[in-house]
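Protocol step 4 of 6: record predicted structures for both targets in the notebook before any analysis. Target 1:
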Amino acid sequence: MRRTSIVALLLATAAALPAAAHAGTISIHTLSNRADLISDGQALVGIRMPRGADAASLQVTLGDRDVTDVFTHWRGRQAEGVVDGLTLGDNQLIATAAGATAAKLTITDHPNGGPVFSGPQLQPWHCPDGATDAQCDQPPQFTYLYKSTDPSKADLQPYDPANAPSDVASTTTDEGMTVPFVLRQELGYQDRDQYKILTLFTPGQAWSRWEPQAQWNHKLVITGGGGCGADHGAGTAPLNDFSGTIPSAPGYTQSYIAALGRGFAVMSTALDNTGHNCNLVTEAESLIMAKERLIENYGDVRYTIGTGCSGGSVVQHTVANAYPGAVYDGLVVTCAYPDVLSAGAQFADYHLLRLYFENPSRWGAGIIWPPVQWGLVEGRPDPVNAIVADEALFKGATNPVGSCVPAGQGYDPRSNPGGVRCSILDAMINVLGPRPERAEIARRIETGIPSFALRLLVKPGLTGLAQLRVPPDEDIANIPHKLTQDLFYLRHQSLLLDLCIMISTVFHFVGDGCVCISKILLARSSPAALAGPNRRLWRFIGLEDK
């Protein structure tokens, strides 16, 4: 009896509670990208209503602006819409409805020119003609292309809807739809660099993200390029197979063209071309931004397949591993490398082994290394791979001297030590972190070696008295010996002494003539300089007979 009374009391209380106490909570989520990674002022948003909520009373605001009208596309209990007009930074999207608990989502918008998450961008950066600002922003260009029935025309050809050519091929998609093999290409700039989006397209017919043309199968292929570089300006989004090493020719159809003919959309960004940009983070950022743009403007994507050779395989492996689900659903990898740094370590081994193998003076007495054996040590059947990897990739990728910027702006150890460094490692500073500044190291050494800072007054060059008289540094104990040489050079610098150093460098030893000339000059200027407390110093550096 008592239990029955309690149950009745609970039921009565529940019935007396307001309807809001039973209301489920609305859920809001972005569909084109993660809410904190949105770019270019718009986002595809889904708002899911709980059971029992009045969908007709849905109200959505973005800050103080009513954006309810964009949520007119319903999938069951979920309303979807592309919200535009986002301001840079955090934006508050709030959804309310009768019979439901309100919800709020923070959408963080980033500039079309980036960055989103890659950190400070590479500088300086050269934008192409037509750019409206330093971030290379400009309106996208739409052009038409077609595949010809002429087998001698392997590449896609320009297509003019007003004057359609007579040799347009037809194609049948993987869903059985036969259409003219005509394409539309969108070419624009995002994250300061070029992107391309191509689809089968019928000119004169509308396309919206809610009603795309029927020949698109809602599948996406992303192409990549090869090599490993670090350009300081906008490049070209790659499309061709095998990193572009196989030119289009009669009888060979590039795989991106075949994919388009099957109904796939094709997308590429210049920053996913490792020969142009070997930085994993900016590769991923550009792809995530471009895929968001495609989803918001073209329609939903069922799945995304990556394809590429060499550097194109690197992009697929590393982006899929570091950003799972953000870009790829499947990979088509050819001439595979796992990632940039693992391959770089292998190429560094090649570089060091070549310094040994190709210089017999390093071999030692009785040792012979014929080239046929080099490859066995390098893990290859012959040394060709090591030579190509070293010359074509490793040296260029790690050398800070290069042509990544106009003449006069680049780093040179003698003429422009503060110039722009063109190596891959320098371009990846946001990933690898900076090397400690030399001034910081110098201050640390100064505490243990007095007067060390004076050595910095000797400008770096190809040679010097310290380099000629003291072996290369092996540890900090060598520094005082070089300091002695540099201090002597500072006190007695002259054109004649510089000439002696240059001549001695050519002959790889400090000549007696140089020592005698310097000694005579010192004796003339100050006979006491070769005596007294400095005598041991002059003896050490060769100006006093030992």
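Target 2:
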Amino acid sequence: MDAVTGTTERFLEARLAAQRSALWIQLAALAVAVGCIALAARLQSPINVQRKDLQLVLHSDIYRDLPPKYAWTTAAGGTFRGVAAHILWMRAEQLKQEGKYYESHQLAKWICTLQPRFPQVWRFQAWNMAYNISVATHTPQERWQWVYNGIRLLRDEGIPNNPRAVPLYHELAWIWNHKVGARADNFHWYYKREWASLMDNLLGSPPRGLSREEVIDWFRPVAEAPQTLAALQEAHPDVSALLAQLDALGVNVRSTTDLEKPRHPLETEFFEPYTRYRIDRELASLRASESDNQEVFPEQPSTLETFFQQSPPAALDALLAYLRAKVLREQYKMDPVFMLELTGRLGTDEPVPIDWRTPWSQAIYWALYGTEQGRQLDRVKEFDLINTDRILLNALAMLARQGNYDFRINTKDYFDSFLAVGPDLDYVEPMHQMYLKLGPVYAGKDEDVDMTAGEMLRSGHVNNLQSAIVAFYWAGRHEEAQRYLDYLARHYKNTVTGETEELYLQGLDSFVRSQMQEMVELYHEAVYTIHAMLRSAYISLGTGQVEDYTRAVQNARLIHELYQEKQGDSPEGRQTLPKFADMQAQVLANFVTDVSYPLYWRSLVWRREQDAIKRRFYDMIFSDLKKQCERMDVDVKVAFPEPEGMDAWRERHPMPTSPEEISEELSQQP
């Protein structure tokens, strides 16, 4: 018994000793752990500084500067955020396959909220909306809604949360340039009209018939507008009275927007009434009789119309500039100052006006802004930069082909607005210079680009210049066409033999004829060439060279017929051209309002052209012609007389009190 008792006591003593030893070990381990944590905490700050300095991460603190809804969700979710995002992602895809797009859209927003600093999440969800969900819908309104949802997701949320993530800028510029700007989507014309209407409603139509400098100065007040109401009132004391009147009318100029609103409250409460007022003023000059040239306003104008009519012009202009800049910043996340700067950053000696109603201007803005942000990083991927710069180059080329907008907003239904596009050859040189600027940037090791775009960008540069040469030729600008042909001959030799390409040695006339054989293959090339040919025809007509005029019109008509034969069965008119008479009338309208040509010359062209062509656009350009003639103390009715048969024409096509019916009129004309 004593032996058993002794054994038990020894066991208990050993156990207590082991427990005491384990306790000391645990305490020592805890002390070491606390020390390590304390040391890690002390090292975390300098490590974060080094990570930031070395640009190993875009955000040293993932929660800092996040909007509250993202910061709270991200912090609260902890390690479960990844699991939740994975489950939501699968559920969103399932809902999309079931056609439940709105539920899928909501889940996509939640996924982005859970991972706000992960650019690929924003990029995928935006692409999914713009390309996958949109094409599963059936009406133009539905499609535009989803395309624009993708744009807004990137522009309004993804980029603000990841301001230096180049892939997000690339995706946004791509959607503008390809989904909205190209013709891959059957409803692309609706997208273009909707966006042009939004910008036309906000900024107004860029003035026609002015110099480059004058058009840029038209936008300058928006870029230079004060950023606060107090600063506006201090600079323009008369605005205070206008603000009080607007408050009495229920228009809150201090209103802001949020992420759920596709439009700013001021766009509907203030700018839409102003657009209707602006259109009425333009039409008033057309309705004025010879004996009464006073403006005609509605018999019972709305209160806002009275406000616009009676406001002092200088004070109203200052208020408009301030509100336009405010909406651009708050709703469209665009910097008016950067928008103005872009006109002088396209590589030309003189700034080039930008029409913000086009999708390609948006692509240029976000591509250039994005690459500038990305180049601030030491470890940005060159792949992302070059792909974004390619969009920039393509957008400039598309502006040269289709950047000249003839647009009349339909204030009742944006999708029914009238839009006709044509070449803007002022963008050929910016496109050319941008290729030369980016050539050395992406040149290979030891590659000597020597005044070219380098091998990386060679094919795009050559193809775009070849198209431009043809357009300049048919526009009668042979010196510019020859200059670009000489450039190709000098700098782009055959890659195998090193000799000058035979194509460039046959002379300008032969080069253009050889290129014409390919012009009927692509829509934008056909439009590009037809417009250039018709402008060349009017130059000949102004100088009395009737035979040259006739030949150019015949060639343009031939290309039109050849192209239409190939594209006659295109669905929704996606690839078909407008009627030839409408295209000719559009070019005539552009020509006679272009102040780069002498007024007398333009007057000769107008009086020599057929009345059947002039009648189609006369009422649309009369106001611009009248203003130009008044500047030079010329009677517009003598310089640009009304075409014969206008009364009968208006009876068959009643003159609208607003331009809503213009698109329908043109579509019904023979």
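Step 5 preliminary note on target 2. The CA atoms of residues 414 and 461 lie 36 Å apart. Strands lie at 404-408, 418-422.
Proceed to step 6 after PI sign-off.
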